[in-house]
Amino acid sequence: MTAGRAAADAFALLSDESRVNILRAVAMAQYEQAPSNAGFEPLSFSEIYDRVDVDNTSKLSYHLGELTGTYLRKHDGGYSFTHAGDRIVRFILAENFRRPADIGSIETSGTCLYCGETTLEARLDEQYFVVRCPTCDRPVTGYTLTPAQARARSGETLLESLKRKQGMEFGLVQAEICPECAGRMDAAVHSVEELTPLEDVPVSHFTLHDCESCRRRYSGPLPFAAAFRTASIAFYWERGVDLLGTGWWECYRFLRDGCWTSERVGSDPVEYRVVLRHEDAELRLVLDDDARTVRTERVRTRSGDRSST
Ligand SMILES: [Zn+2]
Ligand SMILES: [Zn+2]
To answer: Domain DUF7347: where (predicted)?
Structure first.
């Protein structure tokens, strides 16, 4: 069976309202169970029958038979989710198949990478979250926003959730773990000339991270890839800066003011040095051509203290 056929068959199983309602009923019944360390109790046939509007038990039996294997597992005591069932039912319950509600226009401070403007505007553009610069009228940064995320929050609280989600996800990417599917990610460093030419942008290199399973791609300036790693997050945290709660449109300030820089320092092997500066301290990271950390070094620029890992 081709991968396309297998996927089409799996999703065809859901083209029936009763089956979707069965998955919802199992999830809601699990949610209503008393808290337990032992995980969820399977839901019995009769419990499902009580919760789902189907004509008779043989109809329910038929639908459960269809769902079992792909979305449900059958045990002695009843039914529980497979991995795919658990993933799809969260998507269904969160109603993330709908359009996100309009978030309006949210004024936010940050830095336009192109012109340096610090008062920016966040809004949705074709369902995607975008921060735009009103001065040069360009998108400064963008990210995915889920309908559930937009429904649960607004204004500054919504921006907080976006910053933190993007920060945590980009952190996972740096550990070569795909935030979408947990598959393996490959990374490569590219000079800005190899990609879409950007005028007047203080970035010499970008990283592209690709998931070999779901093909999701993440890209960012090389200093961002270095910054969202444990050594850098800890470096800033110790100095009162919560990098994981800092939006990309806020981090662009570090590129424009020269606090975060990157340069190619070796060709055999190819190596890049990223320097992240904070007051009188620097964190220097050396990355290889696959954007893996080769070594890090903390330098106190005034006293000359230095420690390497
Ligand atoms: Zn601008
Ligand atoms: Zn993936």
So the answer is: 8-92
